[in-house]
Amino acid sequence: MSSAPLSDVERAELRALMSTERARLVAQSTALRETFDELVAAADLEPPDDEHDPDGTTAYERAQVTSMREAFEREVASIDAALAAIDAGTYGRCAVCDRPIGFERLAAVLGTGLCITCAAGR
Ligand SMILES: [Zn+2]
Q1: Which of 5, 67, 94, 100 is most buried as measured by Cβ atoms within 10 A of its Cβ?
Q2: 54-77 per-position pLDDT tens digit
Q3: CA of 10 to the centre of ligand 1 (A)
């Protein structure tokens, strides 16, 4: 058994999966930023006293968009950390019990740092 928890082929496959997922997340985050800008622009155009709800709804929508965008950006950060760990050869071990995490789980739950046993115990 080698010291690396993943084979070269498995690492390459995970890296490809993560790049695809990362691009998707960045696109989502960018789209949300545009949505946010549109909300701001729309609020600037509308007089505050027409039939639309006064600022409550707008503030709520902006907060929703911002928190969704932050969630995407956190996922991007966790994928970046996983990609760095792949490059360092440390990816694929559970952060809690240090056992190898199965390749199928790594491919299904991109960026996970926990084996299925430890994840279930949370
Ligand atoms: Zn574990």
Answers
A1: 5
A2: 567 788 899 999 999 999 999 999
A3: 19
91-116 pLDDT tens trace: 999 999 999 999 999 999 998 889 99
**Residue with the larger pLDDT of the pair 111 and 51:** 111
Is 51's pLDDT higher than 80?
no
- Residue 86: strand, helix, or coil: helix
User: What would the two tokens of residue 34 be?
Assistant: 């545009």
Q: Is residue 38 one of the residues assigned to a domain?
A: yes
Residue 79 structural domain: 8-90
Distance 70 CA to ligand 1 centre (A): 27
- Structural domain count of the chain: 1
Cα–Cα distance list, 119 to 33, 72, 90 (Å)? 32, 21, 19
Q: Do 95 and 88 meet the contact criterion of CB atoms below 8 Å apart? A: no
* Ligand 1 center to 105 CA (angstroms): 12
